Amino acid sequence: MRRCAVLPALFLIVIMVIAGCSNQQEQKKSERSKATVKELLIGAVLPLTGDAAPWGIPPKKGAQLAADEISQKGNLKIKIDFQDTTCQPARGISAFRQLADVYKIPVVMGAVCSSVTLAIAPVAEKERVVLISPASTSPKISSAGDYIFRVVPSDALRGRIFARYLFKKKGLRKVAILYINNEGGVGNRDSFKNEFTSLGGKVVLEEAYPPQSRDLRAQLTKIKNSNVDGVIAVSYPDDTILIMKQAAELKVGKPFFYQTEAVEDPSVLKQAGAAANGAIYILPAPAEGEAARAFAQAYEKRYGTKPELFAAEAYDIIHLVVKAAEANGGRLEAEKVRDYLYTVKSYHGASGIISFDSNGDVIKPMAIKIIENGKPRLLEIVGLE
Amino acid sequence: MLSQAVVNGLIAASTYLLVALGFSLIYTTSRFFHFAHGAVITLGAYLAYSINSQAGVPLLGAAVISVFFCGLLGVLMNHVVYNRLLRKGAGSLVLMLASFGIYLIFENVTTIIWGASTLGFSPGLPSSICKWHACITRIHILTLAIAAVSWVFLAILFARSRHGLLMRAVAESRELATAYGIKTHEIVDASFFIGSAFAGLAGILMAADVGMTPTMGLHALMMGVVVAIVGGIGSLRGLLLASLLVGLVRHLSIFVVGSQWQDSIVFALLLVVLLKSPWGFASDAAAQEV
């Protein structure tokens, strides 16, 4: 009986060893063929399964598109090793270590969930690996380290601009904040609240819900019975649907302002349907110009859908990393990539015009949009003044 | 506001009850933590969705077919995985781990087939009926009714039918029941069928209310398990009381403490109940009564 269990285990070990060897051989082979076509291996840690997968799969598609486009041109071959984080910090760290320690990859794209990016950041700093997030928006990431970048603006920027807009243009004075209880949710809440209260507004209610929750009626009931001019919601696509539908069911009767791009997610527009109408939300200003159009076309041609959230950001990350490598004679080195990124100013990418500040944060203008008849309409473009 | 909170609590309680009924039915006869119950909840919703939207069967028919398949799926899990492990002398810990494995596989397969984004039977603006400052939708009323009917169904099954009697015998002691010539395997299969059918039903009702995601089963299972433990596994009356208690506590506690403590409060309640009486609400006598 016992031998039965030992044999398969032995087999497994043997298989793993063989697999490891062949991988090494592949690496050696690619090193040898460096003279002709250089191969760059870039890592990626994204939530490919679980609740946050809708935000992890589009960056994968965007990055892959960029890699294939560059590879087709000839002199560089880009390979991306995608690892799943499931939006869990511990899984993220082990995925990152796999890339950084085992495969010695100097540049990793990711993560998507702010909690995962923040968990990986100290490891990336210590290992001297560049980490570039296509989607993490927590303000804490600004100070996460020298090697940490992002191509999506910090919530601090978004929260500040949204608070100013709602206070000055929409005349809100007393608000409730409904937010998902994780790193991103709390970060958004704080950045809005700080700016809104400093302008003289008041946050009357702060209601959180756990990330897996499918029942927000308790929070919405409380909000319905509070005396507020509007509700600021910080949510992901799945729970945005819940907020919209359950607020309609309970006839909450207060305007909702979404401090998230989740509103625009196709699943939200479809599932919430008419319940989404009237939702006002803020997101990085839509990218305009040749690069954005070309990307959208190529994406649609390849995947049959318009680019989803964060696909363009991931696409830009791969292009920026490759540019950094090209500037370094086709070699991917963490320090060189880091130094290169700090010098990037007004790069016209698929996701907009990209510049990095000294924290590695991207600075982009924001767009205020509204859902009308189930479709997004741009209200205005706002900046930090 | 209070009336709405109570209504919210009742709605939540009815789904907890449905999950807990199925879970505890399976637990009492098989005596291990059937984690994959969560997967059946999820699959019930997705199967009904596909049968409805892709095969074009009306929703009610799709729901019935899906519930039936969920029952079969439960039996299949029992045969393909649990029975084999049991025959090799696996303990309840091994079974639980295997069950967890099944859950993960199903969750991932669901994501691969249907995608990770929310799907729903009836997208769009929900219509609700409001009275005494409380609003409720048709799906909520249906869920409440089905939960009540399911509870009564099980109560009658256990109290009046021979099959229920056999289930109670197996729950009491599998060895003794076998010794008395009861075909315990058939009884366990029956409990897997009924329990899993309940899970599928719960999944469909939840999805009709809030839409479906591949992870929906896990949170639903968590709450169902809390109810099952607080109620005292196997006691129908205990399950009913516990589901009401957990549902109401979850929705009323928000007036006292911040909503971020919602889940913590429920688990604190679980801890308090367990410390006071490790058998949940059900005293030993009630537990024997099943």
Describe the structure.
- The complex is a heterodimer of chains A (385) and B (290).
- In chain A, α9 (266-272) links the parallel β9 (256-258) and β10.
- Chain A contains twelve helices and 14 strands.
- Chain A has helices at 2-32, 53-73, 89-102, 114-127, 155-168, 183-199, 217-224, 237-249, 266-272, 290-303, 311-327, 334-343, and strands spanning 38-46, 76-84, 107-110, 130-133, 148-150, 174-180, 202-209, 230-234, 256-258, 280-284, 347-349, 352-354, 366-372, 375-382.
- In chain A, α2 packs parallel to α11 and α11 packs across α12.
- With 385 residues, chain A is an alpha/beta fold.
- Chain A has a seven-stranded mixed beta sheet, with helices on both faces.
- Helix content of chain A is 47%, strand content 20%.
- Chain B is mainly alpha-helical.
- The radius of gyration of chain B is 19 Å and the shape is globular.
Order of helices and strands of chain A: HEHEHEHEEHEHEHEHEHEHHHEEEE
Mean pLDDT of chain A: 86
Low-pLDDT residue spans of chain A: 1-35
Number of helices of chain A: 12
Question: What's the shape of chain A?
Answer: globular
Question: Could you give the distance between the termini of chain B?
Answer: 37 Å
Strand content of chain A: 15-25%
Major pleated sheet of chain A: 7 strands, mixed
State the order of secondary-structure elements of chain B, H for helix, E for strand: HHHHEEHHHHHHHH
How is the quaternary structure best described? heterodimer
Please, how many domains of chain B? 1
Helix-strand makeup class of chain A? alpha/beta
Mean pLDDT of chain B: 85
Fraction of residues in β-strands of chain B:
under 5%
- Given the C-alpha coordinates, what overall shape of chain B results? globular
The number of distinct helices of chain B, counting runs of at least 4 residues, comes to: 12
Question: What about the largest sheet of chain B?
Answer: 2 strands, antiparallel
Strand segment tally of chain B: 2
Relative helix content of chain B:
over 70%
